[in-house]
Design brief:
The chain is mainly beta. It contains no helices and eleven strands. Strands 2, 4, 5, 6, 9, 10 and 11 form a seven-stranded mixed β-sheet that branches. It has a four-stranded antiparallel β-sheet with strand order 1-3-8-7, with no helix packed on it. A hairpin with a 6-residue loop joins strand 4 and strand 5. The radius of gyration is 13 Å and the shape is globular.
Length: 111
């Protein structure tokens, strides 16, 4: 299993970013996928998940601002992040279940 995130960076409060996670080594279309994040000095926290049915769920802290989606033809899961806040600053990880995580991509929200 390999999960490779991209799309992080520095953005001003209120801005947007789209994260991508390219997956390989398993049958992507048959597995739920998720995003988690780890703010500086804190433990990891779940952000969002998308199931094979297309059903999506979100943490309360990002609901209405973030959108998770998947493209099974490209074996890729996305996280569209809008109306970003400084408290969204974290390393964002794509995950397959609890065991497989990518290397992470840094998102910094600051003016």
């Amino acid at each position: 299993v390999q999960l490779v995130e991209s799309g992080g960076g520095l953005v001003q409060p209120g801005g947007s970013l789209r994260l991508s996670c390219a997956a390989s080594g398993f049958t992507f279309s048959s597995r739920a996928m998720g995003w988690a994040r780890q703010p500086p000095g804190k433990g990891p926290e779940w952000v969002s998940s998308i199931y094979t049915s297309g059903t999506t769920v979100y943490a309360d802290s990002v609901k209405g601002r973030f959108t998770i989606s998947r493209d099974n033809a490209k074996n890729t899961v996305y996280l569209q992040m809008n109306s970003l806040k400084p408290e969204d600053t974290a390393v964002y990880y794509c995950n397959l279940g609890a065991y497989y995580w990518g290397q992470g991509t840094q998102v910094t929200v600051s003016s």
